[in-house]
Design a protein that fits this description.
The structure is a homodimer of 409-residue chains. Chain A is an alpha+beta fold and 409 residues long. Chain A contains eight helices and 28 strands. Chain A is elongated. The interface between A and B is large, with 104 and 103 residues.
C-alpha cells in the first residue's frame, strides 16, 4: 500500500505514458457490421464517393426563379413572372427557364436550368399563368447547392465515431450501408473473497454481489466494445494468474476488478509485474476516487491489462476516466472519454482537497448545477447524478457562484 | 398548406393536448428482459427487497474503533488502542471490541460489534499489539451504515429508466437480474416519389436516399424501443392507407415520414383525418424546423400515429422533441425527452425570429457553447453539433454573452 501511495501518477500523465510505452494506436482488427448495428464504433474514416446533392435542390416549397428577375421585389412592388411549369419530384426537370419565367417547385426538387434561387410559397400569389413575387431573393436562397452536404473525398465520419442517431442519417444519405467497426473484446475478472455472483439471493452475511462486473459490462458495451466475463477469481495468486492467462488469450484487454483483501491486491500487482515487456506501468493514479488503479501492458502481444479498485464508485470512476480513454487511444490514438465537458457556475460550494484531482457527482436542476448531496452511497450517486465536478489537483474548493468544470454523462 | 400554417399549436401544448385527448399513460404491456439487455427501459418501479448493506461496513482500509476512544487524537497527541484482531473479508467478525480496542479492517469489511467508525490506515502506525491513531474520527466516519445504500421498500429505479452503466451496477448490488421492459414497437413508413432505399448506388438523377427511416430507426432504438420498417410507400392514398393499416396492426405507434409532394401530404393528412376517435389532433406545430408535424391517435385501440416532415433535419427535430416525449408519455405519463437541459452564456450572437419556438444546432468547444456555423447542411449539423439552442417563441435573438437555453444530446 505504501508503495502505491508513493507512486501515484497524475491521470493525464498516466494516459500519455501508457499510450507511448505501448506504442498506441495498435491498428486493431475490425469486423464488418451492417449500418443498423446501433452503438458500434467505426474503425476507419468514412469517405464520400460522390458529391451530394448531385444537383442544386430546393429546400422549400415555392417557385424556382433567376434571382436577378425579382431584384427589389416587395409586397408593395411585386415582381411578376410567367409560370413555365412544375418541377416533378424524383426526376430532373425536362424544361429550362428563360428570363422572366419561374417554375413551381417542392422541397427536394431539382432546380431547373436557368434558375438559381427559390422564392417561398408564402411570399407568392399565383394567378393563372402568372406568379406574383412579393419578396426578393439572393442567388442560392432556399436551395442547397451541388456538393453542399458533402463532396467526393470528404471525410463523412471520423474513425472512432459511434453509430447512433447523429450519424445514421448521414450514412444513409451517402449510401453507406456497412462500416468496419472496432472488434475489441474486453475480458472482466472479478476478485474478492466477499464477492458473490450478482443473482445471489438472499445475500449471505458478509458477502457483496458482483456489482463491478455488471457495471463494467454496461459501460464497455455502451462504448461500443464487446465483453467476456471470467467470473470471480479466488484469493490465490496461481488461480488468478491462470484466469488472466486464459482471458489474455481471448481478449485484447483484460480488466481485473479489485479484491479488497490486501493479499488479493498483492497477488494482482505481482502478477502484473511478472508480465512481459513493458509489464506494470502505473501503480496508482493521483485521483480520488480511483487511486488504486494499476495499468500494465504487453507491447509485442498488443494486450492491455488494468487492475481497478474494488469499491464500485471508485471502480466506475477509474473505468470511466482511465480505461475508456485508453481503449480509444489503443484504437484511434486519442485518449478520449465519453463525457461532455462544460463550464457552469456551481449553485453551491463544493469542498475538495488540493494536491489531487477529484471527481464529485453533480446534478442538474432546471439547467443549473449542484453537488449531489449524498456522501458515499454508490447506488444513488451514479443512478441519480448527471455527471461529475472535476477539481484539478491545483483546486481545493469551488465556491458557490464560481465557474466549475463539469463532465456530463 | 394554408390550413397547416393557420393551425400551428405550440409544441408543449401539443404534447399535453395529445396526452390528455388519448388518455396517456396507456399501461403498455412489457416483456421480460435479462438485466444485461443494454438500452432497455424498465416498465415499472424497481423496489428493494432488502436493506443494503445489511451490516455496517468499512469504506476504507484502516482500523475499526469506537469513536469515543480516539476523541481529540492528533499527530502530536495520538491515541493508543490494543489490536484485538483482523476482520476477515466475506464473513461477519467472530469477535467484538471492548473499550480501548481496535481491529484491522479492509474496505468492505463488516464492523465488529463495539465499533462505530474506521480510522484510515494512513492516519495510523502499528507496533505489535498496539495501534497509534493520529486522527480523531466521528461516529460512522469511513463506514456505510446498515441500509444506507437502500432499504427494503425503497424505489431503486423509477419506471422509464434505461439500463446502462448508471443503473446496471445498482441493480446488480440489489440482486435484481431481470426487469420488465417496455415492449413498444414503432412502425416506420417512408413516402415520397424521390425517395429510394438507403443502399441505392449510384443514386439515380433526382432521387434521394431514405435518410429519415435510418435516422428514426436509430433514434427510436437508442430510446429503448423496437422498430419495424414498412418501406417506401408510393404516392397513392389507397396504397398508403393499406400500409398504415398493416403497420397499425403490428405496432403501437406508426410514424409516416413525410413525402415532399403536395399530393402525398394531402393523402397523409386525409388518411389521418379518417382515423377513428379522436383521429387527427395536431395539424402543425409552432416550431422551426419541424412545423409540418401531424399527430393523430386511436384512443380505444391505443395507437398513436405521427406524420413527420420530409426534410431530414426537420424530421429529426420533430422526432426528437415531439415523438420521443410522446412515446414516454404514453408509457410512463411524462412527456420527457432525452436531452440534457443547461443554461450557458452563448459565445456568439444567435439570430432567430420571435413568434415561433426555434432550435438551432450548437457546438461545445473547450466547454463553451457556440452556434453551429452551417446554414442548412443536415449531415454536418447533426453529426458534428453537440445539441441545440432553444429559443422560446418570445425570444428573437440571443446576444453574445447572454445566457441561452441549451439542450445537449
Amino acid at each position: 500500500m505504501a508503495g502505491l501511495v508513493e507512486d501515484l501518477t497524475p491521470r493525464e500523465d498516466a494516459l500519455s505514458l501508457v499510450s507511448s510505452a505501448l506504442g498506441f494506436p495498435w491498428g486493431i482488427h475490425g469486423g464488418d457490421n451492417a449500418l443498423c448495428v446501433q452503438g458500434c464504433r467505426i474503425l476507419k474514416d468514412i469517405v464520400s464517393d460522390e458529391d451530394f446533392p448531385p444537383f442544386p435542390r430546393s429546400t422549400r416549397d415555392g417557385y424556382a426563379v433567376l434571382s436577378s428577375d425579382c431584384f427589389g421585389a416587395s409586397a408593395g412592388n411585386p415582381a411578376f413572372l410567367r409560370l413555365a411549369g412544375e418541377v416533378p419530384m424524383g426526376v430532373p426537370p425536362s424544361f429550362r427557364l428563360n428570363a422572366g419565367e419561374c417554375a413551381l417547385i417542392h422541397t427536394g426538387g431539382i432546380l431547373p436550368e436557368g434558375s438559381d434561387a427559390v422564392v417561398m410559397m408564402e411570399d407568392t400569389d399565383s394567378a393563372g399563368d402568372w406568379v406574383e413575387l412579393k419578396n426578393a431573393v439572393q442567388k442560392t436562397d432556399n436551395t442547397v447547392s451541388c456538393g453542399e452536404e458533402f463532396s467526393r473525398g470528404d471525410v463523412l465520419l471520423q474513425a472512432g465515431r459511434k453509430i447512433d442517431f447523429r450519424t445514421s442519417g448521414l450514412l444513409a444519405m451517402a449510401g453507406v450501408m456497412e462500416a468496419e467497426s472496432a472488434a475489441l473484446r474486453v475480458g472482466i475478472i472479478s476478485t474478492g473473497d466477499e464477492i458473490v455472483p450478482p443473482g445471489t439471493m438472499p445475500l449471505p452475511p458478509g458477502k457483496f454481489r458482483d456489482v463491478n462486473s455488471a457495471l463494467l459490462t454496461s459501460l464497455i458495451r455502451g462504448e461500443g466494445y464487446q465483453v467476456s466475463y471470467y467470473g470471480i477469481a479466488e484469493d490465490s495468486k496461481n488461480l488468478l494468474a491462470s484466469v488472466l492467462e486464459k482471458a489474455l488469450g481471448e481478449c485484447g484487454t483484460v480488466v481485473i476488478s479489485g479484491g479488497s483483501s490486501v493479499s488479493m491486491r498483492d497477488h494482482c500487482s505481482s502478477i502484473l509485474e511478472d508480465l512481459p515487456e513493458p509489464g506494470l506501468l502505473i501503480r496508482g493514479i493521483l485521483m480520488s476516487p480511483g487511486k488504486p488503479t494499476l495499468i500494465a501492458g504487453l507491447k509485442d502481444e498488443k494486450k492491455l491489462v488494468l487492475g481497478l479498485p474494488g469499491h464500485p464508485f471508485s471502480c466506475f470512476l477509474s473505468a470511466y476516466t482511465v480505461l475508456l480513454p485508453l481503449l480509444n487511444a489503443m484504437i484511434w490514438g486519442k485518449p478520449q472519454g465519453s463525457w461532455r465537458k462544460i463550464f457552469l457556475p456551481s449553485e453551491e460550494t463544493v469542498f475538495g482537497h488540493s494536491g489531487i484531482e477529484e471527481f464529485i457527482p453533480c446534478i442538474l436542476r432546471e439547467g443549473r448545477v449542484f453537488p449531489y448531496p449524498v456522501k458515499s452511497s454508490f447506488s444513488k450517486a451514479l443512478a441519480l447524478s448527471d455527471g461529475l465536478y472535476r477539481l484539478p489537483a491545483s483546486q481545493e474548493t469551488i465556491r458557490s457562484g464560481e465557474e466549475a468544470e463539469i463532465w456530463l454523462w
